[in-house]
Design brief:
about 300 residues, mainly beta, 3 helices, about 10% helix
Length: about 300
C-alpha cells in the first residue's frame, strides 16, 4: 500500500518489532506452557530456529527437559576435562600443593569426597578444585577453611588414633657434632659436617575410644583399644603426629618397646613411645614418599 508516497509495509524491515534496550538477563522464568528446549548463551548468534546441540565457552545453560530439569554441562565437562585436582595452600602463601589428581572418564569421576589427614590444626588453608584440560589448568574454585580439633592425633596411610587425655609431649632437636680435644690447646672444638638436623622425642597419653553418641570416652573397652593402638604404633608405617596447637611432625616410631604405666586407677593406663622425625611434614614429596598421600603427581 502506498499512501502519499509512503509504503509503510513495503520496506524490508517495515514490520520488524521496535528495538528495545535489553538489560543483562539474570533470571529466566518459564510458566504456563510446554517447553521442549531452553538454550541461553553469551555468544552473538545469527537468529535461527535451530538450537545448537553442543556446548562452547559462551554457553550458559541448555535444558532439554528429557525427564529432568538438568541444564548444566556435565556431558560437556566429561568430554573436555581430563582430570580434577584438589589443591591446598596456607593462607597468605602463593604456591599451591596438589593433594589429589583424579582422572575423569565418567560423570561419577566429577564427584570427589576428600579427607585431608595432612593438615595442621589451628591453621587457615585455602582449598581449590581445579579442572584440568590435559596439562592446562581451568578456573580454580576455592574456599577458605580453618582447621580446629582438640588433643593429639597420630595418622598413617591406613588409620587414625586420637586422644585428649593426659597428653604429654617431649621434643629435642638433633644436630650431631663431634668434639675434638687437641693436645696443644686448652679448649676443644666441635665439628658438625653433616646435614642432619631433625627432631625426636616421646609421647605419653591415656588412650580411650571416643563415643560420639554419648560424647564420652569408652572406659570399659580401654584395654582392647590400647592393644589396637600398640599394633598401630608397631606396624612400621611412617606417621604424622599432630597436636591441637598446630605442632606436627612426620615421624617413625623408634621405641624398642611400647610402655604402659598404670596409675592408682586401673582404668587410667598411660601408653608411652618414642619417635624420630624422618621428613618434612609440609613437603608434598616427603608425604608422598612416605605413603601419607597417594594418587597424586608430585611436581
Amino acid at each position: 500500500m502506498i499512501f502519499l508516497g509512503y509504503a509503510f509495509a513495503g520496506g524490508k524491515y517495515s514490520v520488524d518489532p521496535t528495538p528495545i534496550n535489553q538489560e543483562d538477563t539474570t533470571v529466566i522464568k518459564v510458566s504456563n506452557g510446554v517447553v521442549g528446549d531452553l538454550f541461553a548463551t553469551n555468544e552473538d548468534l545469527t537468529y535461527s530456529t535451530d538450537i545448537p546441540s553442543t556446548w562452547n565457552f559462551y554457553t550458559i545453560m541448555h535444558g532439554k527437559f528429557s525427564g529432568n530439569l538438568l541444564a548444566g554441562n556435565i556431558d560437556f565437562a566429561v568430554s573436555e576435562v581430563t582430570s580434577l585436582r584438589v589443591e591446598r595452600r596456607k593462607k597468605g602463601l602463593t604456591a599451591w600443593t596438589i593433594l589429589l589428581e583424579q582422572t575423569v572418564t565418567t560423570v561419577d569421576d566429577l564427584k570427589i569426597l576428600y579427607y585431608d589427614k595432612t593438615a595442621r590444626a589451628n591453621t587457615t588453608y585455602e582449598y581449590a578444585i581445579v579442572p584440568m584440560f590435559d596439562q592446562v589448568e581451568g578456573t580454580k574454585y576455592s574456599k577458605e577453611v580453618t582447621t580446629d580439633y582438640q588433643g593429639l592425633s597420630i595418622v598413617d596411610s591406613e588409620n587414625v588414633f586420637s586422644t585428649e587425655l593426659d597428653v604429654s609431649i617431649s621434643k629435642k632437636r638433633n644436630k650431631p657434632r663431634a668434639v675434638i680435644v687437641p693436645i696443644n690447646r686448652k679448649y676443644p672444638f666441635t665439628v658438625s659436617n653433616g646435614a642432619n638436623n631433625y627432631s625426636s622425642g616421646s609421647i605419653s597419653a591415656q588412650w580411650l575410644e571416643y563415643d560420639p553418641e554419648t560424647d564420652d570416652w569408652d572406659k570399659d573397652s580401654g584395654n582392647t583399644f590400647v592393644d589396637s593402638l600398640e599394633d598401630f604404633l608397631n606396624n612400621g608405617l611412617p606417621k604424622l603426629i599432630k597436636y591441637q596447637d598446630g605442632r606436627m611432625w612426620l615421624v617413625s616410631v623408634t621405641s624398642p618397646e611400647i610402655t604402659e604405666t598404670e596409675d592408682e586407677n586401673h582404668l587410667q593406663i598411660h601408653t608411652s613411645f618414642e619417635w624420630t622425625e624422618i621428613g618434612d611434614c609440609d613437603s608434598i614429596s616427603d608425604l608422598f614418599d612416605n605413603g601419607l598421600l597417594s594418587n597424586v603427581s608430585v611436581r
